[in-house]
Design brief:
It contains 14 helices and 12 strands. The strands form 3 sheets. The chain has a 5-stranded antiparallel sheet. A 5-stranded mixed sheet has the order 7-9-10-12-11. A hairpin with a 3-residue loop joins strand 11 and strand 12. Helix 3 runs antiparallel to helix 4 and helix 8 runs antiparallel to helix 9. The longest helix has 36 residues. The structure holds adenosine-5'-diphosphate.
């Protein structure tokens, strides 16, 4: 029998085990049969038959039959649902965050995800709302319990947007794969934009420096080579070299200014600066340049102080850059008006408005939003001819931002441009500020 074949060398056979298990019944049955014969005169054959029946019943009854080993029931754990604690934790994450089960079915999403991907529809596959094959593949792998690298996503419409999705398997410990997959999408657009800007900036700065450097190298080679004894051209070449060296120096100065301002961009200047004498000083400094360009500088300044909180050197630089541009790009023989007035900001804060108006050809509207970008020029050749670096307005914007002020550019083609800077005034004690605050 199969059962007996299973018995190993050291184990008792199944028949022996049955006899041992039924031995109490067998002994009792034998005693009863003996007593019945001896005490009650039951015929021995009948007593033996009775014993055999009881013994057979004891040996082959169901109770003694070898039971098959208990079958181990494999319990398939039911998929978990996100509990309240988990939902609260996911809700507290500021980035869009979606929870799916291991099959990629959406179970929960936070408010930021609703804003980004639309209202929640638990039960929908993730693929209904996010159509990025790499992300869906990552969610599938995470659902199997695999570790997954962050996935970089790029959207082109409606605007270019860069994100990185962290896909994490969450295990409750009861299943082989993941119980949940958490997808957290962080917006990287600003970082990518900054990286691009930095790369562009380095490329532009290198290009701007390389041009005069190449010119200098060329003239040096000429002077030590073919023009070694050329008395006539030597001086002309040296003048060009001086000009190119000056261009490099201006560029390096502007680059250093930008980097200095950027380093303290988050620290608001605290000194008190009267703008009236400051603007007067800048106009005096630029009088020779104005003469050279045939421009007339017309100051329109109040006869009382207009004190702002700021950094004097930086405010001199702002005023210089704006007046210099108005002279350089304004009309030949035209007037540049530089005015200072007390003017409240949009929130009513007392302030001071510096406006530089020229009568130049003006700037076409499409260029206006880009004028403060580094190295952005409307007419590159004109700028270089005017000893421009393309950094002047970028520096102005940075300084104004550091002062928590505002730069406004208005221009009309054929009529001229007005560059104005609003700065917050110190206190409201100046007469004009008092006038401003009264109804
Ligand atoms: P740049 O060193 O070339 O002058 P800026 O950053 O100061 O650089 O100015 C950027 C560009 O804006 C200039 O190249 C010029 O094309 C234009 N621009 C600036 N100011 C004026 C102005 N007052 N009138 C016309 N165009 C101007």
């Amino acid at each position: 029998m199969a059962e007996e074949q299973q018995a190993g060398p050291g184990r008792p056979s199944s028949a022996a085990r049955r006899i041992r298990e039924a031995q109490v019944v067998l002994v009792a049955a034998a005693a009863v049969a003996l007593a019945a014969t001896l005490a009650y005169g039951v015929p021995p054959l009948a007593a033996l038959a009775g014993f055999v029946v009881v013994a057979a019943a004891a040996l082959f009854s169901g109770r003694n039959r070898v039971r098959p080993p208990p079958r181990v029931r494999t319990v398939q754990a039911a998929p978990l649902w996100p509990d309240t604690g988990m939902k609260l934790a996911v809700e507290a994450i500021s980035d869009p965050c979606v929870l799916t089960d291991s099959a990629g079915i959406v179970r929960f999403q936070n408010a930021a995800a609703t804003e980004r991907f639309g209202p929640p529809r638990p039960g929908d596959p993730l693929s209904f709302r996010i159509r990025a094959p790499e992300l869906l593949a990552a969610v599938e792998r995470a659902g199997r319990g695999e570790a997954v690298e962050p996935v970089h996503l790029v959207e082109r419409v409606p605007t270019e947007r860069f994100s990185v999705a962290a896909v994490t398997a969450i295990r409750g410990g009861r299943r082989a794969g993941a119980d949940f997959v958490m997808i957290r999408v962080a917006d990287e657009t600003e970082r990518v934009r900054m990286d691009r800007m930095r790369a562009d900036f380095i490329a532009n700065a290198s290009h701007e420096l390389r041009t005069p450097l190449a010119s200098l190298t060329g003239f040096i080679e000429t002077l030590i080579g073919p023009a070694r004894n050329d008395e006539v051209n030597r001086e002309r070449f040296l003048r060009i070299m001086l000009e190119q060296a000056g261009r490099m120096a201006r560029l390096i100065d502007d680059l250093l200014s930008l980097s200095r301002i950027e380093m303290k961009l988050h620290v608001r200047p605290s000194a008190e600066v009267d703008m009236v004498p400051l603007v007067g000083h800048v106009l005096e400094m630029l009088a020779p340049l104005a003469r050279e360009n045939g421009a007339t500088l017309r100051p329109d300044l109040p006869d009382h102080p207009l004190v702002v909180r700021g950094d004097r050197d930086e405010l001199v630089q702002v005023t210089t850059n704006l007046v210099e541009n108005a002279v350089k790009y304004g009309r030949q023989g035209g007037t540049v008006t530089v005015s200072l007035v007390a003017e409240a900001g949009p929130d009513g804060a007392p302030g001071c408005l510096l406006a530089v108006a020229d009568e130049g050809p003006g700037i076409p509207a499409e260029h206006l939003p880009r004028l403060t970008e580094r190295f952005y020029r409307v007419e590159a050749d004109d700028s270089r001819r005017q000893k421009g670096t393309g950094l002047g307005l970028a520096i102005v914007k940075h300084i104004v931002n550091r002062h928590r002020g505002r730069l406004q550019i208005r221009s009309r083609v054929g009529e001229g441009s007005v560059f104005s800077v609003w700065l917050e005034a110190v206190g409201a004690d100046a007469p004009d500020f008092q006038k401003m605050s009264s109804p």
